[in-house]
Design goal:
The complex is a heterodimer of chains A (941) and B (132). Helices cover 45% and strands 21% of the residues of chain A. Chain A has 941 residues and is an alpha+beta fold. In chain A, the strands form seven sheets. In chain A, strands 6, 7, 8, 9, 10 and 11 form a six-stranded antiparallel beta sheet that branches. In chain A, helix 13 runs antiparallel to helix 15. Chain B has a domain at 28-116: OB fold (Dihydrolipoamide Acetyltransferase, E2P), CATH 2.40.50.140. Chain B contains two helices and seven strands. Chain B is elongated, with a radius of gyration of 22 Å. Mean pLDDT of chain B is 81; it is low at 119-132. The chains are: A alpha+beta (941), B alpha+beta (132). Chains A and B meet through helix 13, strand 3, helix 15, strand 5 and strand 11 of A and helix 1, strand 1, strand 2, strand 6 and strand 7 of B. Strand 3 (425-427) of chain A pairs antiparallel with strand 1 of chain B.
Chain lengths: 941, 132
């Protein structure tokens, strides 16, 4: 077979990219080996050739991978669709600001992002990690070897030819897809990118993945330190530098998770900030384990206890990061998660990745287990470390439970390989499933944060401190009990378990507040933990408040109850229909859908809310405008964006869950148009016409368009509106309709009227235009020669030639330089009715040729031409013809099976106290950041 | 025995209890006929494929929380389903569905649904630049 010579492809990025991938892979191996020998050689830092080699190799590795990213970015930016990655993730109309989002939308891009952060952190380590450099960097380089293998795209020379290592991110589209189009040498002219999912065209998508991946990447550093410490058998020196890295990781990963949560709440339509979705869980668990590690690390640093636990936590944190990558990317969560990737053939590679580092870390740990120092004297029950350690254990237990439940699909898959008939186990209701055990974890964690902060390390001077401890604790508990009792008036909590959790959270809050204000007296350097724990307590409070009091206010109990027999939980029914202009009673609110407006492809719906009290008196008013986004061609709705009213204690979240079918996509609109049955009725002025369900009176005929959708700037040549009154046969309501039709240049514009409550549409028949616009030949013109100011008579009309207009306007006249153009202002008075109309027929000399433009006075049925100017007498010649507008037998097309188009389906949720969750999470992150900064500065100072 | 070991032991016992409790509410995927036979009112999960050739009815003017369609479960049985919610965006494009619900008056009534749409990674469709 002949090779096709493709036209228009740019191939140098393909070759350069391949080179960079191979270089990146080889240098990562090289760096790992060099660092390994560097550590083995036990030479000093200054003159160690292996260390230098390692640093160089890692730097070349970094430059290669970052170069590769730049190259892919270049390919995407230039819309080179011959590359699969560009084809799959960008499109011609994708704005530059979403280019980064497009970059990490795909699996390859997100692996690269992850590697990018490892490289940056690696460079920081080379610069800062002192004597830990070699062993720590060896482990990091090893991790990079595995990650680079994910983008190798190397096909194994055995097996069925489909087994491969990694996916090459800079591969050509025709190399991965086998489509007939590639038989065409100029295929590139024909294809266009599929672009970025519109849900991801969002600023959150720009900042959330890099932050989360920085968190993931930094979780690897404590792992590296633990392996290094075990390898060196230096069990104390690593604690200090590692704590900083763990704090950094806790801060970045936590921020990343919270960003995802904020995104889910305000831009996506998950209807909340946390759904116990497997993907969410598996980013939370590594974070929890790092937090547990930070606590035991603090204990170890202060007392020498808990070194083993700290090691285990840090080892597991990284392995869990890789495990979460596996869960998200292997496709195993397809049935249980809303946002998992589908499989890409990397599953086995990811399993090897996890197992390798699990065995490396835990293997080394258990080999060294007995040599890891422990403190012989046990922790006193009155010491801070005792309760902190228990707190860390509680976090670990909570994480284990989450991991276990989230891993069910993995267990199912494993069991099914041995027993294909095994029925998959599945969580039936994730929210209640997770809540029922995490509730107890949260209760214990809250109480322990309180107790442990009230204690002192090693129980120093307990005898003197004892009364104070009990004083603080009991006082906080008493105040917490009172506050909890008061809060129950605001929050409608029934279950005693939630009351207990509420108490625990308030207790933790009080005791940490006491610590912050009275004990460390606002000393900012020592306040990190107290601020973080205050944040934790507020978060728990926010979770209870929103969790127990999340209410669908978009529900009308009277209108909706009993729709389904046997359904008790009407609370679940989340949607309500709002008809334009009709106020609707909902739970505690009256909502009125006022109208909609377009801004580009975004269509917003204005909904007025009136908050009412129990006696239906208005308390507050506000307007929310949730919107939907159409695709570029308005062929279908791509996304619905919520609008939220944020108040300190209460959020109202609204979302358009559905629109009338004809507004969702073109196909449905066409289907509905096709299903309409129009019948033509011939109406006369003043007559009454009966349709099947209604009767219609034609009240007036207007010679202009009165329809609200008419662009007021546009001028019609001729126009007709029939003003009609529609009476329903079975109600007293009367509707007025103003269907119109007009001619503008060569285009006919129709202005149909839809009466939604009657399911009726009225439109004027096209033949009316013909009636209006009689052929010129049918007109019988009479000639008049008049001077300015003179009057002449025509039939029942008196016509006065008022003046000449030097700047004439006529819909058909397009002025050109050199034109001699005039219009005559004619005033037409009817002798019968006395009505006065004006018209301006136009006279034009262009290139020495005389011509003119006709005008019409529709009310009088008169046509005018301005044909000549006598240069001697100054008299002007007008042609006048009468053609009265018909007032009977006017064809009107009416359909009476039109689906309503004047409503929206709305989902509205009330969240109480959600801001406590956000505020608490900000405090928690600030606390972590503060602890990190204090420790970083201590080293410098 | 150290105090901390006693506390740790207690915590572990607590953890095991929670684990057992949390395992007790696990279910399996049901077929329509299995779900119909259930005596209690609990919600179960049924997995299946959307019957694209059967009618899908959503009339928000009448009831915005009722969307009816047909699904074929894993046993190959095709049944009508009522989803107590709006008709989701791009529903016609979905293939596999996971429903959570129960039989009410002989009809499987779902309160939640997870849709799986064919991913852009899987389809071999090449978007051809259209002529405008």
């Amino acid at each position: 077979m002949n090779e096709i010579q493709y036209i228009g492809e740019t191939l140098w990025p393909r070759h350069l990219g391949q080179l960079l991938i191979v270089t990146g892979f080889v240098t990562a191996i090289g760096a790992a080996l060099a660092y390994f020998f560097s550590e083995k050689s036990k030479e000093g830092l200054t003159n160690n050739p292996w260390l230098k080699t390692g640093n160089w190799a890692f730097t070349v590795h970094g430059v290669s991978i970052i170069g590769l990213m730049a190259l892919i970015f270049y390919v995407m930016l230039n819309k080179m669709y011959e590359y699969a990655y560009a084809f799959n993730h960008v499109s011609d109309d994708l704005p530059f600001k979403y280019m980064f989002s497009a970059f990490w939308e795909g699996q390859e891009g997100s692996f690269l992002l992850w590697m990018f952060w490892h490289i940056i952190l690696g460079w920081v380590l080379i610069w800062k990690a002192g004597h830990w450099r070699a062993p720590v960097m060896m482990v990091l380089a090893l991790i990079q070897v595995f990650l680079t293998s994910m983008i190798l795209g190397f096909y194994l020379p055995f097996g069925d030819g489909s087994s491969k290592i990694g996916i090459n991110p800079i591969i050509l589209l025709r190399e991965v897809q086998d489509a007939p189009i590639f038989a065409n040498a100029e295929y590139l002219e024909l294809i266009t990118g599929s672009g970025l999912n519109i849900l991801l065209q969002n600023y959150w998508m720009t900042i959330h993945p890099p932050t989360t991946f920085l968190g993931f990447a930094s979780a690897a550093i404590p792992f590296c330190f633990v392996v290094a410490a075990l390898w060196r058998q230096d069990y104390k020196g690593w604690l200090k530098p590692t704590l900083k890295w763990a704090l950094f990781s806790g801060f970045t990963l936590g921020t990343g998770i919270l960003m995802g949560s904020a995104w889910a709440y305000e831009a996506l339509t998950f209807g909340g900030y946390w759904a116990w979705d497997p993907v969410e869980n598996m980013s939370l668990v590594p974070w929890l384990i790092i937090i547990a590690g930070i606590h035991t690390n603090l204990i170890a640093k202060s007392t020498g206890h808990s070194i083993r636990a700290t090691m285990i936590f840090y080892l597991l944190a990284f392995c869990l990061v890789v495990y979460s990558t596996y869960l998200v990317r292997s496709g195993i969560l397809e049935d249980t998660s809303v946002h998992a990737f589908t499989e890409m053939g990397l599953e086995n590679q990811l399993v090897i990745f996890i197992l390798f580092f699990l065995f490396l870390g835990l293997g080394l740990f258990f080999k060294r287990y007995n040599s890891i120092p422990t403190v012989q004297k046990e922790e006193d029950w009155n010491s801070r470390e005792f309760w902190m350690f228990i707190g860390a254990m509680v976090i670990a237990i909570g994480s284990t439970l989450i991991t276990y439940s989230t891993s069910l699909p993995v267990f199912n898959a494993i069991i099914q390989t041995f027993d294909p008939l095994y029925a998959s186990k599945v969580i039936e209701d994730p929210i209640s499933h997770y809540n029922q055990h995490q509730l107890w974890v949260a209760v214990l964690m809250s109480i322990l944060t309180g107790i442990s902060i009230a204690m002192r390390y090693r129980g120093t001077n307990w005898q003197n401190y004892k009364p104070k401890f009990w004083g603080i604790t009991l006082f906080a508990a008493a105040i917490a009990a009172v506050i909890t009792w008061l809060l129950l008036f605001w929050l409608n909590i029934v279950a005693w378990q939630y009351v207990l959790l509420l108490f625990a959270a308030v207790f933790a809050f009080m005791i940490n507040l006491d610590y912050l204000i009275l004990r460390i007296k606002g000393n900012i350097k020592a306040s990190g933990s107290a601020i973080a724990h205050l944040g934790f307590a507020m978060m728990i409070f926010g979770i209870i408040a929103t969790g127990v009091n999340k209410t669908y206010i978009s529900s009308n109990v009277f209108a909706q109850s009993g729709l389904l027999e046997g359904m008790e939980d009407e609370d679940l029914l989340s949607n309500i229909v709002l008809i334009k202009g009709e106020p609707m009673f909902m739970r505690g609110y009256i909502a009125t859908y006022q109208g909609d407006h377009f801004d580009g492809i975004t269509r917003s719906f204005d909904i007025d809310f009136v908050k009412i009290d129990e006696d239906a008196n208005p308390i507050a008013e506000f307007t929310l405008s949730p919107n939907v986004q159409y695709d570029k061609r308005f062929s279908k709705i791509e996304a619905a964006n919520p609008d939220i009213r944020r108040r300190p204690l209460e959020d109202i979240f609204t979302r358009i869950s559905r629109l009338p079918a004809q507004q969702i996509d073109l196909e449905s609109a066409r289907e509905i148009e096709d299903s309409l049955r129009f019948e033509t009725y011939y109406m006369g002025l003043g007559d009454t016409t009966f349709t099947s369900k209604h009767f219609i009176v034609l009240d007036e005929i207007h010679h202009e368009i009165l329809h609200p959708e008419k662009d007021p700037a546009a001028k019609d040549d001729i126009a007709l509106t029939l003003q009609m009154r529609i009476h329903s046969l079975d109600s007293d309501t009367i509707y007025t309709a103003l269907p119109g039709i007009s001619l503008r240049g060569a285009f006919v514009f129709r202005y149909p009227e839809q009466i939604d409550p009657l399911n009726m549409r009225l439109q004027l028949s096209d033949t009316l235009i013909d009636d209006l616009f009689l052929a010129e030949t049918a007109l019988d013109f009479t000639t008049y020669e008049v001077a300015r100011g003179e009057t002449f008579e025509y039939n029942d009309f008196t016509i006065r030639f008022v003046d000449v207009n030097q700047e004439p306007w006529h819909p058909s006249y397009d002025p050109i330089d050199g034109d001699i153009a005039l219009s005559a202002i004619l005033e037409v008075t009817s002798k019968l009715t006395g009505s006065v109309e004006r018209t301006e027929p136009v006279y034009l000399i262009r290139d020495a040729i005389q011509t003119n433009f006709k005008t019409m006075v529709p009310e009088a049925g008169l046509h005018f031409r301005f044909t000549r100017i006598d240069p001697n007498s100054g008299k002007m010649t007008f042609l006048v013809a009468e053609q009265a507008m018909k007032t009977f037998d006017l064809p009107v097309e009416i359909a009476e099976n039109v689906p309503r188009s004047d409503f929206i389906v709305l989902e509205a949720i009330k969240f109480q106290g959600l801001n406590f969750f956000w505020l608490g999470s900000v405090f928690m992150m600030l606390g972590l950041l503060l602890s990190l900064i204090v420790r970083l500065r201590a080293k410098l100072g | 025995m150290k105090k901390i070991h006693i506390v740790a032991g207690l915590l572990l016992i607590g953890a095991v209890v929670l684990l057992i409790i949390s395992t007790s509410d696990l279910g399996t995927y049901y077929t329509f006929s299995e779900a119909e036979l259930l005596e209690d009112n609990r919600n179960v999960k049924v997995i299946g494929l959307l019957s694209k050739d059967k009618e899908m009815v959503y009339q928000p003017e009448i009831d915005p929380n009722r969307f009816s369609f047909y699904m074929k479960d894993e046993a190959g049985e095709e049944r009508q389903v009522i989803l107590l919610s709006e008709k989701p965006q791009d529903f016609e494009m979905s293939e596999q569905l996971v429903l959570t619900g129960r039989f009410i008056n002989g009809v499987f009534t779902a309160r939640e649904m997870l849709m799986k749409c064919p991913s852009k990674y899987q389809d071999d469709e090449i978007f051809v630049r259209s002529e405008i």
